[in-house]
Amino acid sequence: MLMGESHIMKRLLLALLSAATIALIYSGVGAQNANQPIFSYRNGDIWKYDPASQTATQLTHWGYNGGPILSPDGNKIVYLSIASNFVTQFEAGTASQAGGSAPANIWLMDIATESFQLIADQSGASHAGVLRSLPNWSPDSRQLVWLQLDPGLQSLDAAQLKLHDLATSLTTTLVNNVDLGFQGDDIRMPSLRWGDGGIARLHFDFRSDDADPFLQIQFFEAASGAMTAYDLGLNESRDNTVRDFIWVNHRGRSLMALQIKDYWDLIDPLAGTRSRLSDPPRLQNRGLSGGLQLIPLSVANDSGGWNIHWRANFGNNTYDTGYQSYRVNRNNRPGLSPDGLQVAWQDSDRVSAWQIGSGTGGRPLADTASRWAFPIPQPFGLVWAPTEWITTGALEGAQAAPALPPAAPSCPLAPLLLAGQHAILGPGVSSRIRAGASLNADIVGIMDAGDVALIEAGPICADGYHWYFARNEEIAGWIAEGGGGEYWLLYSIDCANSPPIRLSATMTARVAGSRSLSVRNGKGNVGTAAIGVASPGDIFSITGRPECDLSGERWYPIQLGHLLGWIAAGAGDEYYIESA
C-alpha cells in the first residue's frame, strides 16, 4: 500500500457513501457500476485506483508509458510504451529525444482480467525505430488507428495511417502518405480523433514560406482512407488558431467541434458547412441520463483561450469544481464516475475528485511517489467511465466550409504485408528485385512464381507501388507488392495438401468452379461445425491471414454477407476459391 494510503482511502470511502446517498435522491441517474476503477497515467506508468478495495495499484512498472485510453464500451484500455532498446540507448547517451515522438509500442489491457496484449512493436524497424501517435478507438471499440513513421525508411514529412482490427489481430495501412506538415526541429506525431464522421486530424504547414501559414482539418474515411480537407482560414496573427478539436453529438448528428479562443465552431464533414456554436459543448457519461455534465469555459483573464475552467452542471444548477486545465485535450480532461455524480482529474502527483456538496476544489484520492518520467507526447491523465461530448446549442451563421480538392492516392493498392512475415510470389508472376524502393533503382535480380522470401522492411510507397525489402538464400532487395489492381507478393504459409497460395488478407474472392463450399466456425473439417454454405460464384471478403488445418489444407477466415467463418482454399492441385 502507498504511503498515507490508508487514511486517504478512508476519506474516499466516506465520499463514496455520500455519493450513493445522492444517487438515491436523484432517480434520473441510471444504474451503473459504482466500483468502476479509475485508471491513471502517473510518472510513466498506468495505475488503478479501486474504490471497492480501497487500494491504489501500479499496473505497469516500465516508467515510459503514455495513456491510458479507454475504449468507448469501457472494457479495455490502450496505451503507448517507449521501445526498450531506445530507452537503453537514451540512458547510455547514444540517442536523444528533445520533445518530439520517440520509438514506441502499443499495448492493450483488458479491464476485467487485467491481461496485456502487444498490438504493435518494433519488428522490422530501421535503426531509427518506429514512431507512433497515441492510438485512437473506433466508435464501436473494435478497431484502433494511429499514425506511424520509421524515419530510417520513410520520408520525414509523411506517415502511414495504420488500422488494427481486434477481432482478426490484423494491422493494415489505411493511408500510406499522410502529410505531417510543419514539424520544426523534432518529429511529433499528430493527435487523431475518431468519431462517427471519420478519423480527423489538424494539419498545419506553410504554403510557400514562413509568411504564408495555413491550418486544415482533415477527415479520413475509415473504410477507404479517402480524405477530405477543409481550410480553417488561419489569419496572419494566428489568433484564430484551433486550440483543440473534438467529435460531438449534436442532436443525434456527429459533428466536429473546434475550440477557437473562447468560442467554438462546428464543422459538418458530410454537408461541408461551418457554424458558430452558441454554447460550449458538454462532457457527460456515455448513455447515462441525468448525471453531471462538465462545461469547459475559458478563463476570463486569459485572452488566448488556452486555460480552461471546468464547471459542473446538474439539473438546473451549475457548480464550480475548482479544476483548471491547460486546453481541453485528453491528457488534461477530467473523468466522470460511472454513476455520473463525481468528477476526478490528475492533480500533480495525485488523483483528485469532486462531488456535489463538497465545495470548490478536489480532495486527494491517492498519491504516487514523484520521479522523473520519460516524455510521451500528450499522455492521457485518467479515465473512469466512458464519456461523450454533446451539444444542444444553436448553430449561428452557417456557411460553406472551403473544401480542398482530394489528393489522388499515390499508391492505389492497400499494403497487406508486414516486416517479419514470409511472402511468396503468386502464380504466373515474375518480378524484378531492385537496389532501392524505386523504378529508377538498379535491378539486382529476379524472383519467380513460387519463390518465398522474408520481408525485412517496408512498405514504402514510391512510383505508384508499395515496396518491401525481401531476402532469401538467393537474392535480397526491394520488390513491388503489386500493381494494376492485382497483388503479386502474398503472405506465405505452406500447407502440404493445398495448391500454391494466391490470395491474402483483405482481398475479395469468389467460389470457383461448380461446387458449393461449407463455411465452418473454425479451420478444418475436424472439430468444427458448418455454419453456412458458399455457392458457386458467391463473392466474399478475406478477413485475416490463412492457416493450415491438421490435414495440411489451407483455410481462410472470411465474411460472406453477415456470415463470419472459415473456408477451404483447395486440395492437391485444385483451387476451390479464386480472386474476384
Main β-sheet: number of strands, strand sense, barrel status?
A: 7 strands, mixed
Widest sheet: strand ordering: 21-30-17-18-19-20-31
Number of strands: 51
Separation of the first and last Cα atoms: 60 Å
Write down the Rg.
26 Å
Low-confidence stretches: 1-32, 362-378
Percent of residues in helical segments? under 10%
Strand content: over 45%
Number of helices: 2
Task: Tell me what the structure shows.
The protein is mostly beta strands and 580 residues long. The chain is built from 2 helices and 51 strands. The protein has a 7-stranded mixed sheet, with no helix packed on it. Strands 42, 45, 46, 47, 48 and 51 form a 6-stranded antiparallel sheet that branches. Strands 8, 9, 10, 11 and 12 form a 5-stranded antiparallel sheet that branches. Residues 1-32 and 362-378 have low confidence and may be disordered.
